[in-house]
Amino acid sequence: MFDEDFGLDTMLAHFGEERERHMGAVVPPIFQNSLFTFESYEAIDRAFENPQENYIYTRGLNPTVEIAEKKIACLEGGEKAKLFASGMAAISSSILSFIRSGDHVISVKSIYGPTNNFLSKYLYEKFDISTTFVDGDDLKEIENAVKENTRLIYLESPSSCTFKLQDLEGIAAIAKLKGIKTVIDNTWATPVYQNPLKFGIDVVVHSVSKYLCGHSDVVAGVAVSSKENMRAISALEYSLLGGKIAPFEAWLVLRGLRTLSLRMERHSRSAMKLAEYLEKHPKVSKVNYPGLESFPQHELAKKQMSDFSGLFSFELTTDVDGVKRFLNHLKYFKIGVSWGGYESLVYAPIISLSKELPAEKWQAAGIHPGIVRISIGLENAEDLIRDLGMALSMI
Ligand SMILES: Cc1ncc(COP(=O)(O)O)c(C=O)c1O
After folding, report:
1. Domain containing 300: what range?
2. Averaged over 86-115, what is the pLDDT?
């Protein structure tokens, strides 16, 4: 847990490093080994008494990976973290950890597309696990969706397309009362701006590929929770499904973490400037950024988060052809999926949504065909504003 005399940046620089174990190396070595050898039968026998805490095989525990896990657990205020090969590996493993065949899940309509597919198709078709998708902004709606066999509430707040929020404290209280577990995707806010465990949520997951790594050179995921929950995930889903992170990737994550709060400050400041600019632009009908006072859930956003990250969407007063012209005239905003890196990115969610989901589903999730999503990188905000202005003049 976070020490009161320990600032966030100090923690990111030093916590969990144990440099004396690595000959004082200021940056920890990459333990690029698949297994660990032992001096005797007795020594390996002792290690197997607690396989989750001892270095035996890199699919279980690796020293480089462990340093990054300790830092992320501390950052989220959790007892333990496990790093996975992708955000989806962390998400699917955390969900599977709490449910079994025939159970029921409650989730929100605005969650990340592949997570929606995992719940609504994969788990339903293969394991008879059904999910009720709610809007998520009304506690009564969530309470009413609870069934006798509801075992899990899966959240994403804010979501990464419409940026809708859920009341974390309120939902955690309902879930606790009914013995239901809660998992949240906290990728957008990052642990620098939101710590869902302190509101009573059971497990936090992240796509580490976004801000936690921050350099667009790694795909990774993480789950953070209590020792008890993480022991179960580690022994079963982590170890049996095998979606673990590689040591080199974990080392890159560590490098990214050292500048996380500095980067978030810049992402956040620039995003606010760009959101305010777009909000006043005549060719933009709506800006979906929780940091704006005009955002419908701005008060809840301020209550749950200490600041706001650099990804948001807006709606152009045009059709899909106008969206195409806009994207094709941008210079610094590169066209691409993902977000949270050093570089600014632009994407039109309609491209993938129209292929993944039937129109009723994405319409129900509040997705407008003229919607554009931008990830604000670390470039100068003035250059980014000029870039947007130029492309907007072309639609
Ligand atoms: C909100 C959110 N959660 C989870 C994921 C999945 O993470 P990964 O791509 O690392 O598997 C993504 C990826 O874009 C995402 O945007």
Report:
1. 260-392
2. 97
